[in-house]
């Protein structure tokens, strides 16, 4: 007798991931039937024609096939060859062998140097874990923290569904807190207090707060004061912080800049708040989603707790080695004056300039459509516009009808969470500029006739 749904774990059935949910499944059906589909549902840059950076691909090629160092040296700049040799020496056995569970020490040293350079603070390579994308780091932190069904994890609403799905899989309790759409999606102390008060009434012990900065799906960027407020809130309640900072290179609005939680913790001399922070090669300007490279840095964890986290990592042996190389490329790029610098500078600048332009184009374009309100996309890769719906329609209906009518695949706001009584959808800024103009025009025509 085959396995049935009744045999499956309740936690698996409860977990949902709207970014690749039923609307995307319908999009695939339409595509197989010959329809042109514009996928705006997921932050997958190279699937939407963003070109990989030459430096990254050269490094991975040399590390995967070291014979190229001798067979085709003229094809690779001298600084790339030198770094590849150093990385291979640091791996001892090449990319076909396991690394230590935390990842290659050579790469973790580079990550720590990157953090020191970015923030001007101390960073310990032994507190760095290389992971298969940021997602695996988030999952490890949540697995560490959730001990039972009444252990609560605060998550933003709207949120990236990795968090709600993982909390469901680990049978914890999500504790939602609302972001303030009218205040550029910032966190408010009042909403945090309301969230923890509601959890207490339900008998939930809140253990951590997750913060996504720059925001997914909101496109917001938190300033230092907002981060300091969150840090004070966490300290007063004994909460750990999970800081999802994978979009830190994606800041577009003039006058805005990324500020890390690690920097604010160090500046405040805060020793009482445990921090898990995450970064990834999938976002920024690299867009190397398929390499599955990321890192998690931890701060203010007791030694015995850190040992348990390392044990969790060791169960999976280690993260994949090409992804670790991609992380190295992210944190140790070419420097001015090196042979590969000029091409790297040009490619990086082109990607970020295009994303900045598209962020403005999309927010202004959607915001000009009657019945749609869209905040400025200050960072990350998404817009989360509010939509006015006809009576009896849901945002899921809207997104499915939009797909059927136009071929545009977006994700309904219910997949991320939203304030009751409101409706949204998430769309990326990633399609090429002319295709993005097409998307805006199609949505405008659809919206005008939607009944």
Describe the structure.
With 451 residues, the chain is α/β, with parallel strands linked by helices. The mean pLDDT is 93. It folds into two domains: 5-50 and 344-449, Aspartate Aminotransferase, domain 1 (Alpha-Beta Complex), CATH 3.90.1150; 90-331, 3-Layer(aba) Sandwich (Aspartate Aminotransferase, domain 2), CATH 3.40.640. The termini are far apart. Helices cover 43% and strands 13% of the residues. The protein has 16 helices and 14 strands.
Shape category: globular
Mean pLDDT: 93
How many structural domains are formed by the residues?
A: 2
Please work out how many helical segments DSSP would assign: 16
Structural class, by secondary structure, is alpha/beta
What does the largest sheet look like? 7 strands, mixed
Query: Widest sheet: strand order?
Result: 2-8-7-6-5-3-4
Please identify the top-level CATH class of the largest domain: Alpha Beta
Number-wise, the strands total: 14
Distance between the termini: 47 Å
Helix content: 40-55%
Return the CATH topology of the largest domain.
Answer: Aspartate Aminotransferase, domain 2
CATH superfamily membership of the largest domain? Type I PLP-dependent aspartate aminotransferase-like (Major domain)
CATH architecture identity of the largest domain: 3-Layer(aba) Sandwich
- Cα-based radius of gyration, to the nearest Å: 22 Å
